[in-house]
Amino acid sequence: DSGVTQTPKHLITATGQRVTLRCSPRSGDLSVYWYQQSLDQGLQFLIQYYNGEERAKGNILERFSAQQFPDLHSELNLSSLELGDSALYFCASSVETFTGELFFGEGSRLTVL
Amino acid sequence: SQQGEEDPQALSIQEGENATMNCSYKTSINNLQWYRQNSGRGLVHLILIRSNEREKHSGRLRVTLDTSKKSSSLLITASRAADTASYFCATGKTGANNLFFGTGTRLTVIP
Is residue B77 pLDDT above 80, yes or no? Predict the structure, then answer.
């Protein structure tokens, strides 16, 4: 158990809908990262927050947004969903903002029908 | 792209044999990490090697790093069926705040 909690584990929704994925980092970790894993594209970095502030942005679509709250949990909002958004979404956390070891949650599997 | 690329994409070996996976990357890095992912599960950190290190060991794992060739290798010795998983390299770029992952090597160890 990495100590990172993600909910929901599975989510099935329709095109055009909006969903929110939630992540609770390990106790004491200030940095939260979001990654998308599709079958044919490996692990794509989406966005990183550190102590409530956005620190790095990757290949995140404009339809997606994220935030980190004062209690350090984070949410990833996906809107106007398309079939291609179906993927595993991982949250990871680390103590600092430097590129040390990341601790991953078990992921949220999103299926868009 | 800043992502690493693993080679081979898939590897199948008999239990007891050694497994070697390679990773190539494009940018300067401050560290390189290897992660393991069991099917559909979260990634688990295996080992981190810094840019000023050339080799590192952890149990049955041996990692090498050649910064002049921008490449790394992961060797798993005396493989076990439980080693069956996907293995990813991830690079920590100098000055960046996040890790970039490769596409992974799917290892199958046949009992």
Answer: yes
Backbone angles phi, psi at A46, to 5 degrees: -105, -60
Chain A residues with CB within 8 Å of chain B CB: 2, 4, 31, 33, 35, 41-43, 45, 48, 50, 55-56, 58, 88, 90, 92, 97-107, 109
Cα-based torsion angle of the residue sequence A65, A12, B44, B86 in order, rounded to the nearest 10 degrees: -120
Q: B17-41: per-residue pLDDT in tens?
A: 999 999 999 888 889 999 999 988 9
Residue A42: which of B48, B93, B102 has the nearest Cβ?
B102
Q: Give dist(CA A49, CA A2) in Å, integer.
A: 19
**Does A48 sit within 8 Å of B99, measured CB to CB?**
no
Count contacts between A and B (CB, < 8 Å).
Answer: 68
Find the CB nearest B99 among A55, A99, A109.
Answer: A99
List, for residues A16-25, the tens digit of each pLDDT value.
999 999 999 9
